Amino acid sequence: MIKPKKSLGQNFLIDKNILYKIVNLKDIKNKTVLEIGPGTGNLTSCILKQNPKKFYVIEKDNELSVNLKNKFNNQLKIINRDILTVDETKLFEDKVTVFGNLPYNISTEILSKWIINLKNDFWFDCLILMFQKEVANRITADFNTSNYGRLSIICNWKLNIKKICDIKPSAFYPKPKIDSTLLHFYPKKKFIKIKNPTNLEKITRIFFNQRRKMLKKPYNQIFNGDERVLNKLNINLNLRPQNLNLETYYKIVCEYEKLNG
Q: Cβ of 23: how many Cβ atoms within 10 Å?
């Protein structure tokens, strides 16, 4: 029996009801599918039963990759690499449906990478991903709440996000110490255009670096006290970072880009 590696954040999903709930969220018959971190192949088996046209899995663990190859033979293409080093935009000809029980230690890094690297077109039609419940709460948080922050702003920029369900530790082997949450992401048709998405990372980092402080200091750091932007966006500098809604942050980035060429 394969032992999960704590260093890779491995917790294998074993609850059959949850597995089928996941694959039934999207019709994948004759579609191209990508699974991140398939582990021992429990979700992989369920996906194959839905008859995808092409099926790719990305698995960093060498031992698990060999096991998947032996288990599924030529039914899927195994990419034995670290997901953070893969450029998904060059892998597929069609739009992809992505499933993933992401390693909890790098889940936010993976999602942020995908969003920040998105070009004008989406390489996926939807993402069906599992996170620690605490992380999922930050992704889906509304402004004026304690969970609202950089992750909420970055994730909601180009994507609609729907919470599917919370999942108890008993659904996994080994049991994690925390609850998990399944989220469904799909592209927005309309969103504010930002020339360089890394500016969104930069601006939100500056604002939320001291999230309990008022907006005056980070605003002055970015705009040197320029009141034109302040008046244009109607920002009250006595508020705190979590008090500004999503749209305001995207507009702040656009104004920053105008001033910085």
A: 20
Angle between helices 107-116 and 198-208 (to 10 degrees): 130
Do 104 and 226 share a structural domain?
A: no
Q: What is the pLDDT of residue 211?
A: 87
In a domain, 1, yes or no: no
Residue 244 burial (10 A CB sphere; 0-12, 13-18, 19+): buried
Per-residue pLDDT reduced to its tens digit, 62-80: 999 999 999 998 999 999 9
**pLDDT at residue 1 tops 60:** no
Q: Is 261 exposed, middle or buried (0-12, 13-18, 19+ CB in 10 A)?
A: exposed
pLDDT in the model for residue 75: 96
Based on the structure, what is the number of domains in the chain?
Answer: 2
Q: Does residue 179 sit in the same domain as residue 202?
A: no
The partner residues of 125 in beta bridges, in order of sequence, read none
pLDDT band at 4 (very low <50, low <70, confident <90, very high): very low
As a whole number of angstroms, the distance between CA 248 and CA 200 comes to: 12
The angle subtended at Cα 127 by Cα 126 and Cα 128, nearest 5°, is 120
**Residue of 177, 84, 99 lying closest to 134 (CA atoms):** 177
- On the question of pLDDT at 8 being above 90, the answer is no
pLDDT in tens, 114-149: 999 988 789 999 999 999 999 999 999 999 999 999
Single out the residue of 170, 98, 110 nearest to residue 135, CA to CA.
110
| Helix, coil or strand: residue 158 | coil
> Are residues 163 and 65 both part of a single domain?
yes
**Helices 198-208 and 216-223 sit at what angle, rounded to 10 degrees?**
140
Domain carrying residue 64: 6-187
